[in-house]
Amino acid sequence: AAINPQDSSQETSQAERRAARAAAAEARFGVVQSPIQLNTTTETQDKVIDDALLSCVQDDRSALDLLRLANIATPRDLAHWRQCPDILRDIIQDNLSNTDITIALPDTSTLGSWANAAALLLHNQPELQDFVARPRLLPSSS
């Protein structure tokens, strides 16, 4: 099979465009993210999802518990809240009052930055769009 040099240059230009888009998004949102390594032969889907979400919330594990109160289990779920982080905060606050979890509720701008980080992550790694999470119980605080 002959190798078409145009194919190689197209791949390079796609990679350059992807890098330029990532740099522009990082400049706009102020978020720098390293790629999540997707090796499904050695990592479970849940770990990949948790790692992706942790990268969106600056490695704050308690933030994952807060997000789960709003049924957010994947970066795609979180990215959907970019336009209305105030509503997300209300949902978390309502659900937090029904538990014995004592975690500080983040402000609206923090929730918005997490949602923007999730959108950026999905833009840079579209394969994460295909991941779905299985329901998991929150750890009890007793």
Largest sheet: none
**Helices and strands, in N-to-C order?**
HHHHHH
Outline the low-pLDDT stretches: 38-42
Helical content class: 55-70%
Indicate the mean pLDDT: 77
Morphology: elongated
Structural class: mainly alpha
- DSSP summary, beta strand count: 0
Tell me the fraction of residues in β-strands, as a range: under 5%
Distance between the termini: 64 Å
Radius of gyration: 18 Å
The number of distinct helices, counting runs of at least 4 residues, comes to: 6
Give your account of this protein's structure.
The radius of gyration is 18 Å and the shape is elongated. The protein is mainly alpha-helical and 142 residues long. 56% of the residues lie in helices and 0% in strands.
Task: Explain the layout of strands and helices.
Layout: H1 5-29, H2 45-56, H3 61-69, H4 75-79, H5 85-96, H6 108-124
In short:
Helix content is 56%, strand content 0%. With 142 residues, it is mostly helical.
Question: What brief labels describe this structure?
Answer:
mainly alpha, 142 residues, 6 helices, 0% strand
